[in-house]
Amino acid sequence: MGMTIAIDGPAASGKGTVSRAIAAHYGFAHLDTGLLYRAVGRRLLDGQDPVEAARTLDAGELDEDALRTPDVAQAASKVAAIPEVRQALLDFQRAFAARAGGAVLDGRDIGTVICPEAEVKLFVTASAEIRAKRRHAELVDKGMDIDFATVLADVEQRDARDMTRADAPLRPADDAVLIDTSVMSIAQAVAAARAEVDARSGG
Length: 203
Ligand code: DC
What we know:
With 203 residues, the chain is of the alpha/beta class. The chain has 10 helices and 5 strands, in the order βαβαααααβαβααβα.
């Protein structure tokens, strides 16, 4: 079965956690597309041209730990507004989605642009305060010395940039199912996502 599941949403909404759990449960491959933009953002911080970086990106650069920092996140959001960067990353994402055996892709434009034909589309969201709280706890856990206000400002700034860019802005696809994780546990959010997948694949 070659089902494609598109999971979009703003920064720190829980979409990554839900995506990993769904992929593991159904035995599907998972691509965190934010890592592609983060890898290009990393290269921008290193002084490279972002379009060139996107065109020459190597899967070996997608090192989660190194790319999960606030400065890389901001750089990712900036390069993500460049149409040539998005275009350069398109084929890789579409090829991943088309692989046999099923795929889960999470990002900002999966249901709207990358995989408009996806069998299941979810839009995972939560209030900015709650998302910033989760991201802050994550960063502190990693040993980073950063205050909550900085994380909240970072999340709000990225949301605004990601939602207002002209090319593939962050928005739910018309046929996406909304999952607001503000008052949900991880288990509840995953259960809601699984219910959607089961409904689409069983019926
Ligand atoms: O999901 P994330 O926080 O790792 O994403 C980092 C940035 O990359 C995000 O602020 C916007 C951009 N992005 C995008 O424009 N489109 C995607 N499909 C995924 C991420």
